UniProtKB/TrEMBL annotation, chain A:
Name used for this protein in its record: Branched-chain amino acid transport system substrate-binding protein
Domain Leucine-binding protein residues, every copy: 36-374
Biological classification of the source: Bacteria, Bacillati, Actinomycetota, Actinomycetes, Streptosporangiales
Family: Belongs to the leucine-binding protein family.
Biological processes per GO annotation: amino acid transport
Species assigned in the record: Actinoallomurus bryophytorum
Coiled coil: none
Keyword Ion transport assigned: no
From TrEMBL, chain B:
Subcellular locations according to the entry: Cell membrane
Transmembrane segments: 6-27, 39-58, 64-88, 100-119, 144-164, 193-215, 221-240, 247-265, 271-290
Recorded superkingdom: Bacteria
Protein name as annotated: Branched-chain amino acid transport system permease protein
Length: 383, 297
């Protein structure tokens, strides 16, 4: 069944990107009057379904602001979101839908594992991608011309983790991941950094299979090395279970999670008592950024709710895309890529933007959060 | 070491409870009921819904509330089992084995995505959580709630074994397992007995679902898939169709996973478990306690 679905997806891709795609993708003059479409592949269902709406709202906020100022190239912008369910197969289908809809730039991507297979889809259609949230180093490892990350990479997240481990005086650290692209990336890099002289000791580098309930065997394995700090780099579903099972097994040391686990569901699954004091390496969220109050007020007024994780990154991704279209003075993919590479000092929430030759941020902008009274709050800006 | 054994036995008792339903259904009508793991999921969700409906009552006496919900859930999943048998399996009973296998897969998807439509795709967190103090038993850390859950599964398994070996109902089941046509000729209402078998197996899976919900806390609509496969593995290791063998198979599988994780790491746990399944199928296809049945022509 999987193969059949893949086959259909590939056929659609082939059709869209070859002959049949010409009418949609070629810069035919009829479309130059209509709105410029920006596409967003985000999880609206599945394990990370909570995140999608935050990103959609963040992107919409930027689009409304730009449209109020007259849009880009005299045309309005329009956001089109598709559900990737944090699942590779669904993501490819969603990406094909966006390509068929004729988007100019893709501003989506949350789960790295689901975003990876969509890269060739967009790249072949010559659609630039400004990826707001997904941050596995594998995304840029393929060196695709159209791929840009406006979030720190796994490398930068691992560096932030090491910085905090050293700063908080950890001695023996266990690293645990869930075998997905994003998670493994951070875990392996953190593990490698721990092996260097001067860093805290690494007691174990282990992985679990996601989707199960009982991780007691892994927990026993992790505790064998008597760590005083455990770093979990996967998502909150398993993270909550592992944290709870660690505490039940008598672990009293510190626990830290990667940005994929920053969600209040983590606290719910683990239980308030077990989760209190959990650290997290996280890209900046609106409530941890100084001077973002005005932005938060706008967001609340528009959507009637607090902005969540990655709404700022999605907001930034849309603005970066619009800026590049404006600078390129065209909706042609290759020209936009050149414009993106030329951006220098464009203000983002995480600081002025200038892409590295690998199309990643020059600085990661990771901060450390801590769970206080059941909520993630800022602990250290690592500045 | 004792911790590893304890972990294995605890997980194994869950596997065994789910595997029993698999094994019973296979034993009686030679059907691999792939929807069985999803009845476990259905149990977890119906328990969640009942606890939600009970609201404020729950907090005061959580263990009692869980027990009440457990019984009600067993009824609910048991009835669902009967419905599935009636709708998906009975009309195909005379059909080739392969058609039955396919409807079982279909029933599994129908349950999974039906639950997804009703309850939504996001994981849910149980309102009642079992929080127990822990004891030190021979160097292993054992919590009271683990003991309670394990005792409960042992009680359920013993009750089932008594039912099968000591009652008329059980004798009828065994008779059908041996030869359905002869059983019919002896005046046994075959359809009714098969329906009851589904009821019992599904109720046990539902019980395991509620127990898992209360213990681990997180449930989602795909949670039945992996445990369904594990239960199948447990049944094959122990001897599918053989009740004591299945219980043993569950415990053996739990121990295998526990030690496998210890020796080769967590990411290899499933490779280890399913690798063993292949080994067993190759070396001893009838399982630990299964007997080679001579086919009469």
């Amino acid at each position: 069944m999987k193969k059949a679905a893949l086959g259909v997806a590939l056929t659609v891709t082939a059709l869209v990107t070859s002959a049949c795609g010409q009418g949609i993708l070629g810069g035919d003059s009829k479309k130059d009057k209509g709105p410029i479409l920006l596409g967003m592949d985000i999880p609206l269902s599945g394990s990370s379904a909570d995140i999608g709406p935050y990103m959609k709202n963040g992107g919409q906020l930027a689009i409304d602001e730009l449209n109020a100022k007259g849009g880009v190239l005299g045309r309005k912008l329009q956001l089109r979101a598709e559900d990737d369910a944090c699942d590779p197969k669904t993501a490819v289908a969603a990406a094909n839908k966006l390509v068929a809809a004729g988007i100019t730039v893709s501003v989506g991507g949350y789960c790295s594992g689901a975003t990876l297979p969509t890269l060739p889809v967009f790249d072949r259609a010559k659609i630039p991608m400004v990826i707001p949230a997904a941050n596995s180093t594998e995304l840029v490892a393929q060196k695709l011309k159209h791929v840009f990350l406006v979030n720190g990479t796994g490398d930068q997240q691992a560096a932030a983790a090491i910085a905090w481990l050293t700063k908080s005086g950890a001695k023996k650290v266990a690293v645990l991941d869930d075998n997905t692209s994003y998670s493994k990336d951070i875990a392996v890099r953190t593990g490698a950094a721990l092996d260097k002289p001067g860093a805290p000791d690494k007691t174990s580098l282990d992985a679990v299979t996601p989707g199960e309930s009982d991780y007691s065997a892994t927990v026993t394995n992790v505790l064998k090395g008597k760590p005083d700090f455990v770093y979990w780099t996967g998502y909150y579903q398993e993270g909550g279970l592992i944290l709870r099972q660690l505490r039940q097994a008598g672990y009293t040391g510190k626990f830290m999670v990667g940005d994929g686990s920053v969600d209040t569901k983590l606290v719910k699954i683990a239980g308030d008592k077990a989760a209190e004091g959990t650290y997290a390496t996280m890209t900046q969220t609106p409530d941890t950024i100084q001077g973002a109050q005005g932005w938060i007020a706008n967001y609340k007024q528009k959507f009637g709710a607090e902005p969540g994780p990655y709404s700022t990154q999605a907001y930034d991704a849309v603005r970066v895309a619009a800026e590049a279209i404006k600078n390129a003075d065209s909706t042609d993919g290759d020209k936009i890529v050149t414009a993106l590479e030329g951006i220098n000092g464009f203000p983002l929430f995480s600081g002025p933007l200038k892409f590295t030759p690998q199309h990643t941020l020059t600085s990661g902008g990771f901060v450390i959060l801590v769970v206080k009274n059941g909520k993630f709050t800022l602990q250290d800006a690592l500045k | 070491m004792t911790q590893l054994i304890w972990n294995g036995l605890f997980v194994g008792s869950f596997y065994a409870l789910v595997a029993l339903g698999y094994s019973m259904v296979y034993g009686i009508i030679k059907l691999l009921n792939f929807a069985h793991g999803d009845l476990y999921m259905l149990g977890a969700f119906s328990g969640f819904a009942m606890l939600g409906a009970m609201g404020g009552l729950v907090k005061s006496s959580s263990l009692v509330a869980l027990l009440v919900v457990l019984v009600l859930t067993m009824l609910a999943t048991g009835l669902s089992g009967i419905v599935i048998e009636r709708v998906a399996y009975r009309p195909l009973r005379g059909a080739p084995r392969l058609s039955l296998l396919i409807t079982a897969v279909g029933a599994s998807f129908a349950l999974e995505y039906g639950t997804r439509i009703v309850a939504g795709p996001n994981p849910k967190v149980y309102p009642v959580r079992l929080n127990g103090t822990s004891l030190n038993v021979l160097g292993a850390r054992v919590t009271l709630q683990q003991l309670a859950l394990m005792a409960l599964s042992v009680v359920l398994m013993v009750a089932l074994n008594l039912l099968i070996t000591r009652t008329r109902e059980g004798r009828a089941m065994r008779a059908i397992a041996l030869d359905p046509r002869a059983a019919l000729l002896m005046g046994i209402d075959v359809d009714k007995v098969i329906a009851r078998t589904f009821f019992i197996g599904s109720a046990l899976a539902g019980a395991a679902g509620v127990m898992a919900g209360g213990y681990y806390g997180k449930i989602d609509f795909l949670m039945g898939f992996i445990i369904g496969l594990k239960a199948f593995t447990a049944a094959v290791i122990g001897g599918i169709g053989n009740i004591p063998g299945t219980m043993l198979g569950g415990l053996v599988l739990g121990l295998l996973e526990s030690f496998g994780t210890h020796w080769v790491g967590g990411q290899w746990r499933d490779v280890f478990a399913f690798g063993f399944l292949i080994l067993f199928l190759a070396v001893r296809p009838t399982g630990l306690l299964g007997e080679r049945v001579t086919e009469r022509v």
